[in-house]
Amino acid sequence: MPIKKHTWIKKQTQMGNLKTKQLTKIGYANDQLRSLVTNIVSKNFKHFSNEEVLNLLTAIKNNPESYLDNIHAGKIAEKIIGKVLDPVFKSYDLLKDSVPFKVYGAKDIEANAIKQMELATKLPVSVQGALMPDAHMGFGLPIGGVLATMNSVIPYAVGMDIGCRMALSIVDETEAFLKRSEYQIRQALKSFTHFGMEGGLDIRQEHQVLDSPLFQQLAFLKPLRGKAARQLGSSGNGNHFVEFGEIELAENNALGLPAKKYTALLSHSGSRGLGAAIAKHYTQIAMNTCKLPRQAQQLAWLDLNSEAGQEYWLAMTLAGDYAKACHERIHSNLLKALGLESFAVVDNHHNFAWKEMLNGKEVIVHRKGATPANKGELGIIPGSMTTPAYLVTGKGIDAALNSAAHGAGRVMSRQKAKDNMTVSAMKKLLLNAGVTLIGGSVEENSLAYKDIERIIKAQSDLVDVQGKFTPRIVRMNKD
Predict the structure, then answer these.
(1) Residue-level pLDDT at 479
(2) Which stretch of DSSP H or E encloses residue 136?
(3) CA separation for the pair 462, 347 (Å, rounded)
């Protein structure tokens, strides 16, 4: 029997803990509202049963105006009236057939990755897809997958490492600088980079991204600022790297620089713990409010008209800005330590979502492990620790959703690479390529990746090559 709105009769049985799923089911899908409800209930309704509390909360939600004069329930009612609740979860079926998606370099893409893309393009919000030649199986959306949706964002299609990106700084030194300054470069890489899941640089880093008002405006982000400050200017593990090498620019290149060889600094990493926390938080909200068949549940989306959708978009953008800030600190620290200055910088995300136009309509383009390649847009497509990276410009191909590959793409899982490569064999690969490796593991050896030359050739319709970067001194996570 529901509790009457102005009657607070204490019960003898202690209330059990309210669960997020229970609150979501009755319409309390907003994270801030759930936090308020949990706090009020735990302090003031300790002796009510779960059933009675849920009945009361349902009544407040359905008719909040009637509870405004109550000392406790009134706070919940005010929050509901002041901020519209996100809808109770909805269930969706997949489309019978996939929306159109083109596969580039299909010969080098495993069947499971294509199946993942087929599943994603059966979402009722999907408009169009594309699969890049470096594609391989991932979680939710395949790595190398591009998906356009209508007014909705899929946190897991952006990925856990929001804003993972490439950054290239070209300096006015010839390739000879790398040989004569190898010792200094190695020392700088050891002193001014940090890799791994935890920790950061010994010297505290400063950047305006830490002053973003979102850290105060979104309650969820407040406790994350401290860790973001500690990790600023550092890199993750896996295939993240910071490396010096030589770049040879093509004739009439898009940078407008003389066609010759230069020294360059190239980095690859993302938004660290901040991005991962944002991804986990909003993926769970999406899965709580958007029910899909089991095989597609990780592709749950947030409507951009919803409060959660708007919050995620703001938080995602902040994570992207933070990832960019990390690269800026890495490049600034290293170049300053070596007495160098950059005169050209190229950088962009490859784990992100953008609002773009497709056939005259605005769509949300998710690129999970794919580089934006709008017409004339500069990008970097890396190979591996011993193979080249390519500086490219996009051709703006609609069928590819204005995208290109983000790298060579794995051909072996990390475990398979570990099982098939020894440390001594990897040292020979490095020696033959003329590469000095600091840290790194056999899991990231060059044979674990597809042939970058084949990958570039497979997307000749998507990009024009502007330059070729050859790594010489590479820093990666040692584990």
Answers:
(1) 61
(2) strand 126-136
(3) 18
- Degrees to nearest 5, angle at CA 23 with 90 and 82: 90
Look at residue 138 and give its three-state secondary structure: coil
Tokens of 313: 């978009």
DSSP 202: S
* Separation between Cα atoms, residue 84 and residue 237, nearest integer Å: 40
The letter for the amino acid at 117 is: M
440: phi > 0 → left, psi -120 to 50 → alpha, else beta; which? left
Half-sphere exposure of 450 (CA within 13 A, CB side): 28
What confidence score (pLDDT) does residue 11 get?
Answer: 36
Q: Which residue stretches of the chain have pLDDT < 50? A: 1-16, 84-86
253: phi > 0 → left, psi -120 to 50 → alpha, else beta; which?
beta
Alpha-carbon span 130 to 122, nearest angstrom? 13
User: What are the DSSP calls for 39-90, one per residue?
Assistant: HHHHHH-TTS-HHHHHHHHHHHHH-GGGGTTSTTHHHHHHHHHHSPPPPPPE
Strand bridging mode 165-171 / 261-269: antiparallel
Task: State the first-to-last Cα distance of the chain, in angstroms, to the nearest integer.
Answer: 59
Cβ neighbours of 88 (radius 10 Å): 14
C-alpha span between 340 and 337 (Å, rounded): 8
Cβ atoms of 391 and 181 closer than 8 Å:
no
Cα–Cα distance for residue pair 406/369, rounded to 1 Å:
6
Between CA 331 and CA 308 the distance in angstroms is 35
CA distance 120 to 99: 9
Distance separating alpha carbons of residues 146 and 132, to the nearest angstrom:
8
